[in-house]
Records
---
Amino acid sequence: MDGSAAELETWMSSHLQVVTRVPSAEASALGAARVRRRLTLEEAAARTGLDPDELRALEEGRIYRFPSVDDALAAALVYATALGIDEREARRAAGLRRRRGWSLDRWLAALCFAAAAVLLTWFVAVPQLRDTLAPGAPASAGSAEAHKQLPPPWEIRVDVYNGTTAPNVATRLANQIGGPLAYRLGSVGNASRLDYVQTRVYYPPGSEAIAERLAKQLGVETTALPSGKDPNRLVVIVGTDATG
């Protein structure tokens, strides 16, 4: 055998070894999964409904055994499902890294954002609650009374009397009190005396807050009455200061 023939024989021998070298079933992902489940090729075929030779071809990577690549992929999917291969096992067999959750930096950023939102709510959205619970904040009955909600004007009766000799001044003021200010009008007429100088809002005990509100709306002063049983009744007497 000359040199050329020897070289040709060596070349064919090496290539024939490559072509005929077939991977073992245990070396493939599907084959290893079947072996871990202690199934024979025939038992696995019974689970899938495929031919044992087709499963062997899948385990050995011989997809040319199937009519097309799509058929081979479909058979591999059926085989993997029948073996109960889950996502973690499939990713490990494919050499893919496991999906990671949030990193420590992302968790810290989320916690900082949540803390900032809580602080913003505490110091901006509920300032009254903040002031009430702040250390050293004085608690007084006066502050509680100031925040007490007053009854609406239409629940308060206002009697208007003319304390001067000028005509119709009580009617004009009553129209303002019962109209734009929306109070409930009571008696409108002349006072027992006609020498009042200043227009004032008179209130019974316990009605100072509603009297102050009406007086501020009219731009006048208030005066407490010595008695009175209706806390929602006020009296306005018009003085000469309103006739000029």
Note: The first strand starts at residue 157 and ends at 162.
---
Amino acid sequence: MARLDILLSRNLGWSRAAAREAIAVGSVSVAGAPVADPRTEVDASRPLAAIVDDEPVQLFDVARVLLNKPLGCVTALRDARHPTAYALLRDAPLHAELRPAGRLDADTSGLLLWTTDGAEIQRLTHPKRAVPRTYQAALARPHRPLPAHLALDDGHRPGVSELTALARDEAHPSLAIPADASILASITITGGAYHEVRRIFAALDSHVLALCRVRFGDIDLPRDLAPGSYRLLS
């Protein structure tokens, strides 16, 4: 349960005092009836339909957003030099509270999960959880076979659970395949170290030309979600 005045404040960007005033004067209705007490508790386990100043709104206690991050923007709330993925979510529920679960660099596109749930971010990104992430890559040349024990140039041993060839007709539309790509590959890792996928392929004597994350945990990047667009998750 959540207090109605707090939900209004968080979702509409109002001060708590303004939210209490709107409820007190009868400007807020839930389930077809005006609410008079700002301290009224409501079930916000799902988005709550309300009427505020005669306009329908949805009030969220928790928001989860799947963004198809395009190339060229960084995973940041603000950046003086680059466009940010956060700016693409300005119309999303609880925008001020959304934070990314992990990062994608500017040269990597694809699935980027944002949530207001800090515990979920910890659960998805903590190394001990070993949450799998699947990427599709366009490579400059074929890679050598994955050895049983792969070590990167800094001694890091990545967790690679799967590495397979990828047919072009199976590639996600958001993988920007360059004309000089020699081969495509799908790779699933259980970590999120800096530039890890690119470094893995470099250690296998290849080079990544394009990279797109298509799965994170049990969440897939929809093939019909255009770069720069987002979708709310339940």
Note: The longest strand covers residues 208-216.
---
Amino acid sequence: MSAKTFEDLFLDELKDMYDAEKRLVKALPKWIKSSASKELVTVLQDHLGQTEAHVARLDGAFRQLGRSPERRPCVAMKGLLAEGDDLSSESHDPLINDAAIIAAAQKVAHYEIATYGTMREWARQLGRSEIANLLQQSLDDDSAVDRRLSRLATTLNTEAAAAR
């Protein structure tokens, strides 16, 4: 990171999140394919569509800054996705696998929520209200996904625990 100014810091985080979302677009189809629950598949498919919209919003944020979209490797997302792949490949029991995928997806969503919330505030401080609005939309999407995953986890985790 080469942030010398607050705007540099914001731009670095924008690049980081752009990379994170691009990685997530590639990872979600694997988790969808590995899911046994139809409800989980639906939530993950919706999250994939939203993630693609997040990439488009970040493209728009870069354009508003007069820049081409750029990626800076997101170490956090790389780690979260690798952990999710490990968790979901450890069990051959579909209920346990789905519980692991939900856990991994929620970790990713929480990272996105934290990052979009921070970036939105930074955009506001920089007087970039249009970018702040784009970031708020992505924050709202991820918050909704997290709520859906929590509701689904209540049912699936109960079934997984009962199957032990």
Note: The chain has one domain: 6-162.
---
Amino acid sequence: MSASGAAAVALTTGARVNPLVSLLIWRLRQAGHAPGLILSTAPLPGLARLTKARRLGWRALQRRWSGPAGGAPAAADPAPIDAYARRRGYPSPWQPLPAVAVGAAVVRVSDLNGPDAVAALGRAGVQVVVNGGGGLFRPALLAAAPAGILNVHMGSLPRVRGMNALEWSLLLGVAPTATLHFVDAGIDTGDIIARQLLPVKEGDDIAALRGRFVPVAVELVAAHLAAVVAGRAPRQPQKNRDGRQYFALHPRLRRIAAARLSAMAGP
């Protein structure tokens, strides 16, 4: 516990530049739950390209450097993220995390579920972990956070679980939604805490919605973290039959999903 009575909070990341995690650091600090630890699986500077090359292959990496891959997931539009940061008086969330993690220890681990990560949570007295990326969570890490691990999913749970949830939502005619939920041993199957619709505006593309998701996710965590720490957060159990797990889209399906955005647009 901190002097203010707030339980210790940790964030995870798989990248050195992570606007979601940067915004969470500042927003949760204002809410009285300043993160004390960031578990990072990001490669050390200079090794990132080599790691990507080994994972993707050099030719795929060259295509990625030379331009957008046809059908690759759209990157988040930075405009909604930057607008949120300006409104709240935050610095740029696009800086490397060591520069913005004031008051929080950044601990690099090779595996979120390895003994080093679990030990770091124990040393810091962490009660709750907020997922900002870095990998899936296995039983050892789930057990290391007594108040739970939180995730904000870019889809309406339980209807749309798994990968590319935003695009699958568009294909299925499900309103784009952010869902705050507890992480359990399944894929997006933990108890639901809250949902928030993502507004769709005229002229939006998928990148715009991805960018709009980030501040919505930050506010969902900030609004409910105190209740999670106190053990009073609402918990809506999911039933497997109420949804299904989706996987990566074929590029053709991704293009169809993007085309369907215009039909959902409001003023």
Note: Residues 146 and 224 are 16 Å apart (CA to CA).
